[in-house]
Amino acid sequence: MVSSSSSGYGLLFCLLILLLVPFRSHSADPDPLQDFCLANLNATSSVNGFPCKPVSAVTSEDFFFNGLSVEGNTSNVFDAAVTSANVFSFPGLNTQGMSMNRVDFATGGLNAPHSHPRSSEIGVVIKGKLLVGFVTTDNVFHSKVLTVGQMFVIPRGLVHFQRNVGKGKALAFTAFNSHFPGAVVLPTALFASTPPLPNEVLTKAFQVEDQVVNSIRSKFGA
Ligand SMILES: *[C@@H]1O[C@H](CO)[C@@H](O)[C@H](O)[C@H]1NC(C)=O
Ligand SMILES: *[C@@H]1O[C@H](CO)[C@@H](O)[C@H](O)[C@H]1NC(C)=O
């Protein structure tokens, strides 16, 4: 038998957990401490983010960005191009906890498997047809083919990709709850790092011979 007072404590405990959950997961970047903080990318000292440009030097132009209006150059091994509106290209995003990418795909293009260590991702297909997929930490693969106007969410930090499975070009816009989500692109992180990962790490990890590792490296000019 559970006494009424211990079930009362149980209820209180559940309420406390429910109250705490939103605060634990409400955002990836810390909240801003002022209206804005235009990143001074030249500052010699660095904190967890960028110091602010003096307010007197801020102009309206600082809050606008034209970079995502331009189609990316997809002439590369993946036939896809990611253009980023993050704090580096758009310093007005500093401390605002958000950023966006434009992803252009030539026919058959692939935004190669990658993860964003500091952010979840939400995306919308603007043109074409994309296969979007991610893998959980339990190695469960979730995927779907999306058409224009349809959306996806990639939980923070999980390995994911988008592949153009339509007939022509494709285009997607993605958004992040970080001003600098970062990207670990698996093929280049593992096979085109500086200095290179030791061959014995890669041959053992993928259960292949040296020649396979060298062949993959050569595709990335490494
Ligand atoms: C940073 O340095 C560049 C080149 O010296 C300059 O054009 C730019 O105005 C500087 N930006 C800031 C915020 O001081
Ligand atoms: C696109 O990139 C390729 C490879 O780097 C380059 O040869 C080509 O000139 C670029 N095209 C444009 C329009 O910039």
From TrEMBL:
Positions bound to Mn(2+): 114, 116, 121, 160
InterPro entries assigned: Cupin_1, Germin, Germin_Mn-BS, RmlC-like_jellyroll, RmlC_Cupin_sf
Keywords from the UniProt entry: Apoplast, Disulfide bond, Glycoprotein, Manganese, Metal-binding, Secreted, Signal
Cell compartment(s), UniProt: Secreted, Extracellular space, Apoplast
Disulfide linkage: 37-52
Major site of localization recorded for this protein: secreted
N-terminal signal peptide: 1-27
Pfam families referenced in this protein's UniProt entry, alphabetically: Cupin_1
CDD domains found in the cross-reference section: cupin_OxOx
One term under GO cellular component: apoplast
Residues binding oxalate, per UniProt: 101, 111, 116, 121
Record domain Cupin type-1: where: 66-214
Classification via Gene3D superfamilies: Jelly Rolls
GO molecular function, one term: manganese ion binding
Functional note: May play a role in plant defense. Probably has no oxalate oxidase activity even if the active site is conserved.
Family: Belongs to the germin family.
Record-given protein name: Germin-like protein
Organism: Ficus carica
